[in-house]
Amino acid sequence: MTYVITQACIGSKDTACWDACPADAIHPSPNKAEFAEHEQMYIDPAECIDCSACEPACPVEAIYPEDEVPDELADAIALNRDYFASPACNTASN
Q1: Are 18 and 76 in contact (CB under 8 A)?
Q2: Which pLDDT tens digit goes with each residue over 33-53?
């Protein structure tokens, strides 16, 4: 299982989850220029260690375990995976 950032992040893009993540699994990094190019942040399912540190840190409650994402937000699962599957995505630089 991995954690997923849902659409509630759009408009907030608070970096508390990024600060809380011990695995650096949340991208894009607020320290990179690419951060401004994205509406929200995403959790890399390959890097996520399922520690749950990001979930309570999120002030807008946008983060869920993948198997607990509400049905109305289920599109977020594919959006997170697609972000990391994109050829333009290079998590080492995000």
Answers
A1: no
A2: 999 999 999 999 999 999 999
